[in-house]
Amino acid sequence: MKKTTNLFYIISSFLTILSIQFISINALSKNLDGGVSGGGGNVICPLVPDQQQKPKDAKDVIKNLKNPMQKYLKFKEYQLNQGLLSDVQKDVFTKVFDHNNSIYKSFDEYNMKVPTESPCFDRQYQPVDGSVVIGYKKEVCISAKNMADKVHKSEWHAQSGALILHEYVEILGHSEDTATKVQQTTLDDLKEFFKINPPKDSDGEDDNHEKDSHKDETFN
Length: 220
Fold this sequence. Notes:
Blueprint: H1 2-32, H2 55-62, H3 66-81, H4 87-97, H5 103-109, E1 111-113, E2 120-121, E3 127-128, E4 130-133, E5 139-142, H6 144-150, H7 156-171, H8 176-196
Parallel strand pairs: 1-5
Antiparallel strand pairs: 2-3, 4-5
Helix pairs in contact: 2-6, 4-8, 7-8
């Protein structure tokens, strides 16, 4: 009888441990769907939506920004080398380009993950707009759901592009403060750019419904 009781206790304990592990793995898997990072970024002072917006439309914008943001970096690197940046921007981008690891290499190694039904998550599994995924995949997570919920579509390109750079700067090992300064500087640049070159909405029209003869192909 004692042996039976001990066997029952062992089996019961084993099943309990398995249940706890299963719950933990499920919770972790749920978070990994949106990305888990050593930190996390959020959009900065966005213009809020005036109507409901589709995450799928935001995803279409975000997923096409990876290459244009690399071109933006090339342009800033050129300006830095030519002494054309303001003191503030010089300080910000010197940290980016003087790093031992190339930010362009990070763009090559880390793919973009753009969930439409969930936020991204930071290391404490708190919801954020963007993060760097840790795991067997190397991915930068930018949440299309959060972008659609929090940002007016006229700012999707600028806010997403700036947030993308925030996350890729973090991959280099820079602090949250440095990543946020890069994000703010980039956001200011892109907002100014898109005033002159309005991004097209999902219907193929400029957001302000005006034609612009100065459309720059860099951020198409």
